[in-house]
């Protein structure tokens, strides 16, 4: 299963959701890969720490397609092991932004899909984290994925952007990846004691949007987990937010 966690709005928890779901999958014995396509590298820092300097990055993987090499290396040559069993990472790099225009000019949007296909059954699950933008990398991820998870915080701006995002996903499905499906909208940083989030969630359900049942609560534990560079399943396995992520993982099946 390949999932891309995507939203064009920043600050909705894309990296946190991708990493924590991946960590749960890995903890259950699934061979799991996180692909970080955001030049900011939040998912990479979450898994490796802020001081890590991996030997290879996603930028190195894509660079080979603009360097006119006769032979290109597979995706697994650029992945690095994390401190957590069964969990590998294709780290991000600021260089992703530098080579984006070259990749666009050469129309390399299918290279990620082809590289993942070439991996065969190396990984049971792949989670792709993207920047908060519809760009070359997010399009490549949507083309390569089986499903898209859409993080959503109960904010009016997020709600307005949600409809445009769903239209974009439908367009990618029609033009490039007919198998792509919206697996669900993940409500993140939910405050159960506030009126606005309750109302927004109820209204979205009334609109019959693919809202997942699990609501991820707001918690400072997430920031503590980021600082420790340790996903919640390892950092605070009994915490309510960790249990919510487990429920979300089970709901996704």
In short:
It is built from eleven helices and eight strands. The chain is an alpha/beta fold and 253 residues long.
Structural features, described:
- Helix 1 packs across helix 11 and helix 5 packs parallel to helix 6.
- The protein has helices at 14-27, 42-48, 58-63, 95-105, 111-119, 136-144, 156-175, 195-206, 221-228, 232-235, 240-252, and strands spanning 2-5, 32-36, 80-81, 87-90, 125-129, 147-153, 181-190, 211-217.
- It is of the alpha/beta class and 253 residues long.
- The termini are close together.
- Helices cover 45% and strands 17% of the residues.
- It is globular.
- It has an 8-stranded mixed sheet, with helices on both faces.
- The relative contact order is 0.19.
- The chain has 11 helices and 8 strands.
Looking at the structure, what is the overall shape?
A: globular
* Estimated helix fraction: 40-55%
Distance between the termini: 10 Å
> Taking strands numbered 1, 2, ... along the chain, how are they ordered across the largest sheet?
3-4-2-5-1-6-7-8
Number of helical segments? 11
Uncertain stretches: none
How much of the sequence is in beta strands? 15-25%
Total beta-strand segments: 8
How many whole angstroms does the radius of gyration measure? Answer: 17 Å
Major sheet description: 8 strands, mixed
The ordered H/E elements are: EHEHHEEHHEHEHEHEHHH
Topology:
Elements: E1 2-5, H1 14-27, E2 32-36, H2 42-48, H3 58-63, E3 80-81, E4 87-90, H4 95-105, H5 111-119, E5 125-129, H6 136-144, E6 147-153, H7 156-175, E7 181-190, H8 195-206, E8 211-217, H9 221-228, H10 232-235, H11 240-252
Parallel strand pairs: 1-5, 1-6, 2-4, 2-5, 6-7, 7-8
Antiparallel strand pairs: 3-4
Helix pairs in contact: 1-2, 1-11, 5-6
């Amino acid at each position: 299963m390949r999932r891309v966690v995507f939203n064009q709005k920043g600050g909705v928890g894309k990296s946190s959701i991708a990493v924590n779901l991946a960590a749960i999958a890995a903890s259950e014995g699934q061979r799991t890969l996180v692909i970080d396509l955001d030049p900011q590298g939040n998912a990479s820092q979450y898994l490796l720490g802020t001081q890590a300097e991996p030997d290879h990055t996603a930028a190195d993987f894509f660079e080979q397609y603009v360097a006119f090499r006769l032979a290109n290396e597979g995706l697994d040559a650029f992945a690095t092991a994390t401190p957590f069993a069964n969990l590998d990472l294709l780290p991000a790099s600021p260089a992703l932004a530098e080579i984006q225009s070259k990749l666009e000019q050469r129309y390399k949007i299918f290279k990620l899909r082809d590289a993942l296909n070439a991996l065969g059954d190396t990984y049971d699950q792949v989670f792709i984290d993207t920047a908060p933008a519809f760009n070359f990398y997010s399009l490549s991820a949507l083309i390569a994925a089986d499903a898209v998870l859409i993080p959503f915080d109960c904010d009016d701006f997020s709600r307005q952007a949600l409809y445009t995002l769903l239209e974009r996903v439908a367009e990618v499905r029609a033009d490039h990846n007919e198998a792509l499906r919206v697996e669900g909208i993940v409500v993140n940083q939910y405050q159960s004691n506030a009126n606005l989030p309750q109302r927004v969630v109820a209204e979205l359900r009334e609109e019959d949007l693919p809202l997942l049942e699990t609501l991820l609560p707001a918690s400072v534990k997430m920031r503590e987990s980021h600082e420790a560079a340790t996903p919640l399943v390892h950092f605070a396995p009994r915490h309510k937010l960790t249990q919510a992520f487990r429920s979300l993982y089970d709901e996704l099946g």
